[in-house]
Amino acid sequence: MSGTVLVARLDNAGEVLLAGPAIRAVAAGADEVVLLTGPYGRDAGELLPGVSRTVEWRAPWIEPVTSPPTASSVGAPSAVVPPVTGPHVLRLLRIIREVAPDQALILTSAHESPLPLALLFRLAGAFRIVAASDDRAGSLLDVRHVADEGADQPEAERMLGLARSAGFDLPPGDGGRLAVRRPLPETGHLTGPPGYVVVHPGVSCPARAWPLESWARTVQDLARSGRRVVVTGGADERVLTARIASGAGRHGLSPGPVFAGGWMGGGPPDAGDRGRGWGGTARTGGWAGRHAGGGVEGWIDGRIGGESAAPGRATGADPPGSAGGWPAGTAGRSVTDLGGRTTFAELAAVLAGACAVVAADSGPAHLAAAVGTPVVSLFAPVAPAGRWAPYGVPVVVLGDQRAPCRGTRATACPVPGHPCLSSVASTQVVEAVGRLTFAKETVT
Length: 444
Known about the structure:
Distance between the termini: 29 Å
Strand content: 15-25%
CATH class of the largest domain: Alpha Beta
CATH architecture of the largest domain: 3-Layer(aba) Sandwich
Low-confidence stretches: 67-78, 251-333
Number of domains: 2
CATH superfamily of the largest domain: Glycogen Phosphorylase B
């Protein structure tokens, strides 16, 4: 065994989740694995198998300070680059000295240099340091791993290659997919039974954002196809998720009965459900909530035909603006807004219960892969999908991967109209979800 190994991955949740196979390889050959990560990656790190404990430090050259998104930013926060200061660097040195590692692996993306962190590690103590670098590292690195950065190798495999260069490999029987610790929290009271579709619209930069109107239309079309839809987002994305969930109402999903305390699978709960707290008084939220004087949480639900037809709509009639709607009497139309209502571990559980996840290039897309759920990926080509698309599960990548922004790593779209994603129609997403519906059962 190799004593205590410090593994550093200092960026966001998605990158930390992609480091999972490499971390498990290290854990198979180490007494203890300590993960050094930033504030946006810590929750993901604490879910990774093989991690003994996590320590946190914000790297000014990797992770900016962000401000919450506005209603018009489609989940994209604005960034402020923090300064490099002596006290902040000294804090890292104290952390490393307390960990007292025998060796360290610095995991970075191909466009990031590990050498600034390697220098600080050298100042913190004498231990073996391994990283991937095309630059001459001198005495900063004991093992300089050189990867073929011209190939679109999946990021998870790229980091596993670095672990192997350091002398670590996956144990027998570990196929190298993404994974999280089990068991996950119980979230059925938020979502209802498994089989819904999760829509996660938030992104960390505008260049990866699908237009808000497209998200709302997709929620509408998924619900019209008979799917239960769960819209998810972080605490700073509540306005975004509420607008998308409520936007489905403006596209023709008229509000039906709205019940307190639980999930909606289509139509009112029966008497037994009421006894479990899922029925009774109206709950505020979304489009239906505004008509009830409400806020931003809740459900939008209705049925075409039967006793649960939405008020103001003739029984059996298609909703306004629909393209055929549903057959009369069809149950199962519901939209649940969980924006800001889950911890990271609870989000993992919500994603695990989904038959498919629709997400942009974001941490939750990788979290879906880590729990084995197929993903429809709205992927802007500013970074290569071959490296960064969800790994190890069935995936449908939508978006023009040959658009002019390809490979620019732009944070704001450099092409007017954002054509790489704005050209994707909601009907394409619904079709992709249909193709993936049964694929999850094949993922082990």
